[in-house]
Design goal:
Blueprint: E1 8-16, E2 26-36, E3 42-52, H1 61-67, H2 71-74, H3 80-88, E4 94-99, H4 102-108, H5 111-114, E5 119-121, H6 122-129, H7 138-145, H8 161-179, H9 181-189, H10 212-218, H11 224-237, H12 245-248
Parallel strand pairs: 1-4, 4-5
Antiparallel strand pairs: 1-2, 2-3
Helix pairs in contact: 6-8, 7-8
Length: 254
Amino acid sequence: MAPPPPQIIRVIDLETTGQAPPTHGVCEIGWQDVVLGSDGRWELQGEGGHRLVNPGRQIPPLTMAVHHIRNEDVADAPYWHDVARPILDPWPRRVALAAHRSDFEEQYCTAALTRGADWICTWKCSMRLWPGSPGFSNQMLRYWRMPDGLEHERGLPAHRAFPDAYVTAHHLRDMLNEVGVEQLIQWSKEPGLLPRVRYGPDRGKEWHEISEESLAGFLTDRDVDVRHTAEQEYFRRTGGGAVTRRVTRQPELF
């Protein structure tokens, strides 16, 4: 009897007409699989791929300037719902889907298209595993880490669906071999834990370096990742004590 096919996590990258549906649509999807081998180690598998997609609307010049996909390139391409399911749902092998800043992909890759798959966000996980990186974009991690086996030309051009998925897959492989699937999924379900302050007078400082007054201001920040990180630092300083009234009023800001 033939052994069952190996489990995979499929890395997804989308190029779109803008930031969020339904105003914007997908114009390209790329993917690369990472497979669990018989030795218990995760590795890239297969050639991956990409498909152009007709977004059903014009591509604005602003986004064409990023990914260089033109309206004439996608005029005869299939629509998103004709393309998405077979790529997003390689059942039963798929353990999860992954993307760098997966919150973006998840807007378009809905539960109906993915059969409710779990997602791994390599951006959130990179900040947990490699906090010393000078930045956490896909390409910054690529050149800071220089992952083994990454073919430089195959990961180009940046901001196209397959090359970006291919680069992300190398980060994911190394994360999986360091901490495993369950931990990555758990981190991905939480807001991002930022190693350093993003903006303001304390920009670039580690969170333990800022004053109590500065920290209090971040506890009600509109950015969920900043707010979450500030809360974790607050808990560290108070030994896990109760959050102040200023934090409990956060929902009133939205």
